[in-house]
From TrEMBL:
Protein's name in the database: Bifunctional salicylyl-CoA 5-hydroxylase/oxidoreductase
SUPFAM superfamilies: FAD/NAD(P)-binding domain (SSF51905), FMN-linked oxidoreductases (SSF51395)
Record Gene3D superfamilies: 3.30.9.20, Aldolase class I, FAD/NAD(P)-binding domain
Superkingdom to which the source organism belongs: Bacteria
Organism: Billgrantia aerodenitrificans
Residue ranges of domain NADH:flavin oxidoreductase/NADH oxidase N-terminal in the record: 396-734
Domain FAD-binding per the UniProt entry, residue ranges: 5-320
Pfam families, alphabetized: FAD_binding_3, Oxidored_FMN
Length: 761
């Protein structure tokens, strides 16, 4: 094949090398606009895994690269005057210029033509397509090739919020990959610093747009900008200067990071690679890793697949998955730094943990493998904060107090509808279901949404708090749980609103009944879907009646013996229908602004708080994101909702999301709703519960230790395993969980198996 590689960075050079190694008969030219020794970055970071991949692909260049690596194992975080060091992280760095020179030399050995100072205009790319069998577009972040065929590649470019500048220094930071956070007169400024050769380190300075503007960095020359950065970080630079290699850029050289993702990576005989196809934020240091490993993969597929189109398809299919994984981690990391000022008041222990786990690629138990001593010290700190000084148990087993309610741990059994009630009355199914989960070790067990009136039921199978027999059935459960287990019980009360009179969950969710529908009401006459009833827009008499039904339900829950109460104001049910502008179309004092939309829910919540005993905690569940952009409730607005709840003496907010509209487009993933809890907790200093695709002890411990929530709710895992908490304790070899006395023989066997790395099956 005759191949043109546009761009002489790591992607273009290493693809050319890889192709020549497969078949020396290929005629390959690498075309680069800059000189051979020009480079506008400093160091790059690679992992041991990437080095192994390079060695398997080309042992010669891998050995040369390895000779120039700087290795370090530690991460140091300097925050609030405290330097926290953890180990076991395993990084290696090399200068970008050195890497390029090594790859250039290897390319020449393999008879690859290198054309430097050759600027390919966008209009000339069509001619290259005709001249060569394959055109690799590795022409960088601002790819002209991607722009030329934008209608085919369909790039999505998301410009991120923070400003940063890429600098270098002779202060090597040779003991650790170092993060430095400095508070200035205009806000926080931070640096990412790491050594990449014997006497040089990368030094990336970053700050918010507001801080950048307040300093006037945008109007400064590069020299003035660098001098100011030297002043900010003077005590860490030890007299060393900061250096720029971006003198070709006019102005201060600060930029915003653009996240690039393309719908397609190939068009005819043109294929994208490296930053032209996708970018990964510098805070996870994987851009060069992606480029090199993509080069290996595409070269392999071009020789294993029957034709170029098949090779491109396989390359895109398989590499896209890895790119999306890294971009997901990079997005989490990027967003953490964009909101870092939210976390800078955390204790240095918790701040360090939050930083280390920001991308979700490093988990609690992964940290234990890396640095068991540091993690144990962090766990002891967490337990001490919870009033359990001297313990080194995992965070999930720290006690927690809300008003007079004391929980033995932070694990919560989420509300999960059972659809087994008869005329609103809980049955033996409910007794067994909730009793088993209370015996299973969780600190707090929720009932499903229990409805305040017959008309407020979601389905005919939903339980209620509106008849004497309901109270008796719930009291039977509370008495058993309190007598036989240390678990506490929370009653969740609510009204279905526009989602009422629908089928059981295992029939057709949220669809109207085939017959026997009852009238429904909501904030406005907006049906849940075209198939559902149009609800009556509530008038003042309706509001007063429903408010009083909530109060009566709360009093019934108190008489039944519940330890905690939650008002359901999420998921499109009645109170949620007031909160979200998607369903609240009112033009009176209950519609329009957030203050107005919250007016009626707060009226109900305040009345419930007044009726509920002062020594018992009250929670409210909210949907923190309608997943429809600015048309619905956004995470920004959720923070304000939480502040209003806090002012209404709500003790903790149960932070869910979505289910308020059929138009919602959630972004699913592990712990995908936890960021909303994190934001509310750390911006309002209000206690929160995290929910949403949380299913491992690792998830629970990571969320708690990083300060993203105070309690963690698990739903489906508790449907699959009522004893999830006890089994999780055995899995991490925690022997302190209290098991029911008749089950201790099972506990002992499970612990022995766990110690041997075995399970039940």
């Amino acid at each position: 094949m005759r191949i043109a590689c546009l761009g002489g960075g790591p992607a273009g050079l290493y693809f050319a090398i890889s192709m020549k190694l497969h078949d020396p008969a290929h005629e390959i030219v690498v075309i680069e606009r800059n000189r051979p020794d020009d480079t506008f970055g400093w160091g790059v970071v690679l992992s041991d895994e990437t080095l192994d991949n390079l060695a398997a692909n080309d042992a010669v260049s891998a050995a040369r690269i390895r000779k120039h690596f700087a290795y370090w194992d530690d991460i140091a975080v300097i925050h609030d005057g405290v330097k926290t060091v953890s180990t076991g992280h395993g990084f290696c760095g090399i200068g970008r210029r050195q890497l390029l020179l090594l790859l250039q030399a290897r390319a020449r050995e393999l008879d690859i033509e290198l054309r430097f100072e050759s600027d390919v205009a966008e209009s000339a790319i069509d001619e290259l397509r005709r001249e060569f069998d394959l055109v690799l577009a590795a022409d960088g972040l601002n790819s002209r090739t991607r722009q030329r065929y934008a209608e085919h590649f369909q790039p999505d470019i998301d410009v991120r919020a923070c400003k940063f500048v890429w600098l270098g220094t002779r202060q090597t930071f040779n003991d650790a990959f170092t993060f430095i956070f400095e508070k200035t007169e205009h806000g926080w400024v931070w640096a990412h610093a790491y050594q990449f050769d014997a006497d040089t380190a990368t030094f990336i300075v970053e700050c918010s747009e507001a801080t950048w503007r307040a300093f006037g960095f945008g109007e400064m020359s590069q020299q003035a900008s660098i001098a100011l950065c030297e002043r900010i970080f003077a005590r860490h630079l030890d007299g060393h200067a900061l250096m720029s290699n971006a003198n070709h850029i006019r102005g201060s050289a600060w930029i915003n990071f653009p996240r690039v993702l393309c719908a397609r990576w190939s068009f005819d005989n043109v294929v994208l690679m490296g930053d032209a196809a996708a970018t990964a934020h510098f805070s996870i240091g994987s851009g060069t890793k992606l480029a090199l490993e993509s080069a290996i993969a595409l070269a392999e597929y071009l020789h294993s697949e029957p034709d170029m189109a098949s090779a491109f398809a396989r390359y895109e299919e398989e590499r896209r998955l890895e790119v999306l994984r890294l971009q997901s981690a990079a997005r989490n990391s990027t967003e953490w730094f964009e909101q870092v000022e939210r976390y800078l008041d955390l204790d240095p222990v918790q701040f360090n943990y939050s930083l280390l786990t920001r991308s979700q690629r490093i988990s609690h138990e992964n940290l234990r493998l890396r640095d068991p001593a540091w993690l144990e010290s962090a766990e002891r700190w967490f337990q001490a904060q919870a009033g359990n000084a001297g313990s080194a148990r995992a965070p999930m087993f720290a006690p927690y107090r809300l008003r007079d309610m004391q929980l033995i741990n932070r694990v919560v059994v989420s509300p999960m509808a059972q659809y087994k009630a008869m005329d609103g009355c809980p049955t033996d199914w409910h007794f067994v279901h909730y009793a088993e989960r209370a015996k299973g070790g969780a600190g707090l067990v929720y009932t499903e949404m229990t409805c305040v009136s017959p008309e407020g039921r979601i389905t005919p199978g939903c339980p209620g708090f509106y008849a004497p027999e309901h109270e008796a059935a719930w009291k039977r459960l509370c008495d058993f749980v309190h007598a036989e287990t240390p678990a506490k019980l929370c009653a969740q009360i609510g009204h279905s609103g526009p989602k009422g009179s629908t089928q059981l969950g295992w029939q057709e969710m949220d669809a109207p009944l085939a017959e026997g529908n009852w009238p429904i009401m909501a904030a406005s006459a907006v049906p849940w879907s075209a198939r559902n009833q149009t609800p009556k827009a509530m008038d003042r008499a309706d509001m007063e009646r429903v408010r009083d039904e909530f109060v009566a339900a709360a009093r019934m829950a108190e008489r039944a013996g519940f330890d905690m109460l939650e008002v359901h104001a999420a998921h499109g049910y009645l109170l949620s229908s007031f909160i979200t502008p998607l369903t609240n179309r009112r033009d009176d004092e209950y519609g329009g602004s957030l203050e107005n939309r919250m007016r009626y829910p707060l009226e109900v919540i305040r009345a419930v708080r007044a009726a509920w005993p002062a020594h018992k905690p009250l929670s409210v569940r909210i949907s923190a994101n309608d997943w429809v952009g600015d048309e619905g409730v956004t995470p920004d607005e959720a923070v304000e909702i939480a502040r209003l709840l806090q002012a209404a003496e709500v003790d903790i907010v149960d932070v869910s999301a979505g289910q308020t509209s059929t138009r919602a487009k959630p972004q699913y993933g592990r712990m995908f709703q936890t960021p909303f809890s994190d934001r509310i907790r750390n911006e309002t200093v209000m206690a929160t519960m995290a929910v949403g695709n949380i299913y491992q002890a690792d998830h629970v411990n990571s969320i708690l230790m990083a300060g993203r929530a105070d309690l963690v709710c698990l739903a489906r895992p508790h449907l699959a395993d009522p004893y999830w908490t006890l089994h999780a304790a055995a899995g991490i070899q925690d022997g302190e969980c209290e098991w029911p006395s008749p089950y201790r023989a099972g506990r002992d066997q499970l612990q022995r198996l766990a110690e041997r790395g075995e399970g039940w099956v």
